[in-house]
Amino acid sequence: MTGLKNSRQIVAEALLRMETADGYSHIILDHLLQSERSLTDRDRAFASVLFYGVLEKKLTLDSAISRYASMPLRKMDALIRQLLRLGIYQIVYLDSVPASAAVNESVELAKRMGKKSAAGFVNGVLRAFLRDKGEIRLPDREKDPVGWLSLAYSVPRDLVKLWQNQYPDENLEEMLRGLTGRAPLFARVNSCRTDAASLCRRLGEEGVEAREHPDFADCIVLSQTGDLEKIPAFAQGLFHIQDLASQVCAAALGAEPGMRALDCCAAPGGKTFTLAQQMADQGEVVSGDLHESKVSLIRQGAARLRLHSIRAVTADASVFRPELGQFDRVLCDVPCSGLGIIRRKPEIRYKPLDALAQLPPIQYKILETAAQYVKKGGLLLYSTCTLNRRENEDLASRFLKEHPDFVPGQFPAQVRRFLGGQEGGMATLMPHRNGTDGFFFALFSRQG
What is the pLDDT of residues 252-287, one digit of tens each? Predict the structure, then answer.
């Protein structure tokens, strides 16, 4: 068995686990890749492309399978479903894989993975698809525009409708296109240890492609990183991985040296680290999370970055702890539906929208608790990585209405420039407009 075939088998196993165990995509794939030491870097890259591609396009792939299969998808063996998705994905989306190889490898995987009796079925479906030009058929765009967008971008119809209703001023297709494909990899420069230009030169010497972001200081864009932990500059704490949206969000708080800052729902710690760096590691950043295992990760990250102003604590963000004291700056990045990061976690797009109704009450409770820590004259920032007005604008507006001692805050100059001059209040970032993850933040100032 060659490395390339092994890559496909690992992807099939990972997809099967995603469907049967409902895990996190990056954890499942990383675990399986680490368990197979014979894979080359090229094999691992291929596996990653294939795994995330099939996850992202699952709805579209299933529409094709349903057209050519003799039995309903729900009645198929779970592994066979994955093999058919793998085969059609390679035929349609991977120019580097010949169609014949995509079919043959899927058939061989069925045999190798204990489904020899279904190999003929896999072969039949894939070859029927190829005979019919090997193209995904979409609904008529004029007669069913929502259906067309849904299958063209593999986003469930109800989610397309949600965004259509909530963001009427956006070009919906551009929005969906921006939420499709692999997201860029951003890093935040550890400004307590180096600067962007020096770090980019250093990373270039270490074989990593890095460039400064043109519109946001201390942010760099990375590619060809390989295993991050093997990069000396990373091991020495000269940067941490953080999407541009999160960097803009942290900057919106305007933290300064000598302040006390609180990051309520901090794990894995990216915004905590950025706040500490903005404060020149002077003052104190209390970084809290509900789970001790995640708090331990924050401590490890702070140690690697050599940031001494961070105090990581285990705490329930919905329960006020007066012993923590009052803070100049409070960041409240709440658990959310994650609809703004479906490029990074494709599985999120398929979660039932009914579950979203449970989130705003939890988010509002955390926000109200966080508000109690803010000094008079201090700032409170509420943020999510989702695109859903019920979790975002609606909740922030309710907070202002019910808490008259808070008013909209003004964004710092760097953030105003990035937002095209927007002064403050609430901001929504979108991939197609800002080049970031989908993100929302609202800044509140407590009146003194």
Answer: 999 999 999 999 999 999 999 999 999 999 999 999
Name the residue type at position 360.
P
* Residue 3 confidence class, pLDDT cut points 50, 70, 90: very low
What does the block give as tokens for 20?
């049967």
The domain 244-446 having CATH identifier 3.40.50.450: the answer here is no
Spatial distance between the Cα atoms of 315 and 313, rounded to a whole number of angstroms? 6
Residue 88, judged by CB atoms within 10 A of its CB (0-12, 13-18, 19+), counts as buried
Query: pLDDT confidence of 38, banded at 50, 70, 90?
Result: confident
Among 37-41, 79-83, 341-345, where is mean pLDDT lowest?
A: 37-41
Contact 425, 329 (CB under 8 A): no
For 331, half-sphere exposure in the C-beta direction (CA atoms, 13 angstrom radius) is 33
State the pLDDT confidence band at 35, using cuts at 50, 70 and 90: confident
**CATH class for domain 185-241?**
alpha beta
| Phi and psi, residue 286, nearest 5° | -90, 120
Q: What's the one-letter identity of residue 240?
A: H
Cis bond leading into 268, ω under 30°? yes
Q: Enumerate the H helices of 99-190 as residue ranges.
A: 99-112, 119-131, 145-152, 157-166, 172-178
**Where do the structural domains in the chain lie, given as residue ranges?**
3-131, 145-178, 185-241, 244-446
Point out which residues pair with 212 in neighbouring strands: 220
- What burial class does residue 93 get, using C-beta atoms within 10 Å of its C-beta: 0-12 exposed, 13-18 middle, 19+ buried? middle
| Across 307-328, average pLDDT | 97
Cβ pair 305, 242 in contact under 8 A: no
Position 413: which residue type?
A
Q: What is the pLDDT of residue 423?
A: 83
Beta bridge partners of 406: 446
Tokens representing residue 242 in the block? 């953080």
Model confidence, pTM: 0.93
CATH number listed for the domain at residues 3-131: 1.10.940.10
Catalytic residue annotation: 385
